[in-house]
Amino acid sequence: MEKRVTFKGWLLPLLLLLPQVIITAVFFFYPAGQAIYQSLFIPDPFGLSMRFVGLGNFEFLLSDPYYRASFVTTAVFSILVTVVSMGAALYLAVLADRLIKGSGTYRTLLIWPYAVAPAVAGVLWMFMFNTRVGVVSWYLGLLGYDWNHVLNEGEAMGLVVVASAWGRVSYNFLFFLAGLQAIPRSVIEAAAIDGAHFWTRFRTIVFPLLSPTTFFLLVVNIVYAFFETFGVIHTITAGGPQQATTILVYKVYADGFVGQDLGSSAAQSVILLLVVGLLTIIQFKFIERRVHY
Amino acid sequence: MATLTLTSVKKSFGPTEVIHGVDIDIAEGEFIVIVGPSGCGKSTLLRMVAGLETVSGGTIAIDGRTVNDVEPMDRDIAMVFQNYALYPHMSVFENMAYGLKIAKTPKAEIDARVAVAAKMLQLEPYLQRKPRELSGGQRQRVAMGRAIVRKPSVFLFDEPLSNLDAKLRVQMRLEIKALQKELGITSLYVTHDQVEAMTLADRMIVMNAGRADQIGTPLDVYENPATEFVAGFIGSPATNFFSPSAAFGRAPTVARIGVRPEHAQLAAPGQGRAQGKLLFAEALGAETLLHIRLNTGEMFTLRQDGTAPVPVEGADCGIDWPAERELDFDAEGRRLP
Ligand SMILES: Nc1ncnc2c1ncn2[C@@H]1O[C@H](COP(=O)(O)OP(=O)(O)OP(=O)(O)O)[C@@H](O)[C@H]1O
Ligand SMILES: [Mg+2]
Questions:
Q1: Which of B69, B92, B227, B288 is the most buried (most CB within 10 A)?
Q2: Where does the ABC transporter domain lie (chain B) (predicted)?
């Protein structure tokens, strides 16, 4: 028979749950409710009264070329961050897996960037690439390349992508390395004897066997790129130049707090809420059927 | 089909040498079994032949070609692993076809060869299944099939049966033997099970701590063990060893005497070549094992027919054996003539 821990009465369990419930309520349910509520109104410029507009904010948003552009920017940004951070992590994990001996030190060193807060990472990269005092831009200057992410949209995007991806490499690396080490050595050896050279083995054996890890990381990294890169963008480009690096999350902030268009900002939050909900569902569906092969 | 020649093959891991020089000449189509206790270097030797470990000294030649620096894929060998090492994400068919696909074999020929192997191994109903949907014995067959379809010149087996239950092990043992006879492919087979070694081998290599103590046919190894280790390792129940003081009239060079339980018989007390007291008897039906404490304090196991009379426990008894069955060893464990 299954033995379950039960409480007598309901006061203690309630008390134990309360902190989490309060935190969730104050920092999630209340703001989410407010966002949904406000997304249905347009406040007057002085914030003294609100006019009910139904889904007007959403209609306006979806026909707004700037908002659509931000969608595209977000897609490009997320894909680049995910590909760069996962690609780099996988490459490093494959290297580390080959020399298992050194991987202890390697692993410890690689986890460091993960401990750096996005905003701090942003500042770090911003200084390295600063057009006037940055180390990297100075060296690029020596090589005859005039780096200026403040004016050049492509360079701005590249910089925020690299800065965002950098912080994720260590996290992805750990998962990839664990995944690689879970593949039995003899399977790889059998493939070698069967005639497969390194790249063929990677393509036909290693990568397919890593697919559960890869899929998990894909979802996690997209969520990260969507929502947690605010600090990086805010410190490095503040969404510019023009709108080149204004991803959806940044636009919520820019329109709401800078532009004071609270109705539209709230509507954008609601759309993001739906996106994150969708990603969460995908992830849970995946966790239910863990094994793919 | 090919010959396989090992010439003073050595292996070190860092500063520790684990294989101290093994020599053997394997003829075409021969079935060679490497047997020895855990950690004696059987797998290491096999993996060097496979190209999965580098060779620290000596040479390995397949069909006269030295392969020390040849990659595993270019040695024309196939290997069956202890844990089968099937590709978990591929069906049975894909597992068997993998090597052929990489070799860019035409599709029709792949289908034909896999079909033949599947029929031979009774795997036809399972071709579309994944390895995790198979029993241990079936997985073992798939591993065999993967080796067969490539028609390699040498088969390597690393304890392929050790994950199976006793009954299946006997059955698969017979199947492997039959298959090897039919295909006639030179085979090197590693096991720590002496019964497997005795039944499968054309010739066997008895390994002891990184050395080949003896190479010979199973019967030769059983009848004429070259060292004390071999005498003790091959045969069940194990050979009895005791000091010459338990018997009379041995040359001073004899340090240990070995007598197999099945070669000794009871004699009247005071008669025979050694004396002792019966501690207890194990009646196994067809045979009875008598555990006797010799006068020197050493233990002696004697095997006799299940129908033969058994003395009461604690009784004095004499032990006798034919002179030509006695195995004498020097202080280094080498056999004396
Ligand atoms: N990669 C390695 N690094 C260092 N030592 C090793 C390595 N592989 C094997 N050894 C050592 O070499 C010796 C022989 O190992 P091997 O695996 O060949 O034994 P084995 O005869 O196959 O034993 P078993 O029957 O247990 O499989 C052992 O003492 C082992 O500790
Ligand atoms: Mg072994």
A1: B92
A2: 4-234
By CB atoms closer than 10 A (0-12, 13-18, 19+), residue A58 is middle
Select from A200, A205, A292 the Cβ nearest to the Cβ of B87: A205
Which domains can be identified in chain B, with CATH numbers? 4-233 (3.40.50.300), 240-329 (2.40.50.140)
Return d(Cα B182, Cα B172) in angstroms, integer: 15
Provide the residue-wise pLDDT of chain B in tens; the chain has 337 residues.
689 999 999 999 989 999 999 999 999 999 999 999 999 999 999 999 999 999 999 999 999 899 999 999 999 999 999 889 999 999 999 999 999 999 999 999 999 999 998 988 888 899 999 999 998 889 988 998 999 898 899 999 999 888 888 888 888 888 888 888 888 899 999 999 989 999 999 999 999 999 999 999 999 999 999 999 999 999 889 999 998 887 777 778 888 999 999 999 998 888 888 899 999 999 998 999 999 999 888 999 999 998 988 888 888 999 999 988 999 999 888 998 8
Distance spanning both ends of chain A, measured CA to CA: 34
Q: What interface predicted TM-score (ipTM) does this complex get?
A: 0.83
A chain contacts of residue B50, beta-carbon cutoff 8 Å: 189, 193
- Determine which residue's CA is closest to atom 3 belonging to ligand 1: B13
φ, ψ for residue A104 (rounded to 5)? -60, -55
For chain A, the maximum distance between any two Cα atoms, rounded to a whole number of angstroms, is 77
- CB contact under 8 Å between A186 and B102, yes or no, is no
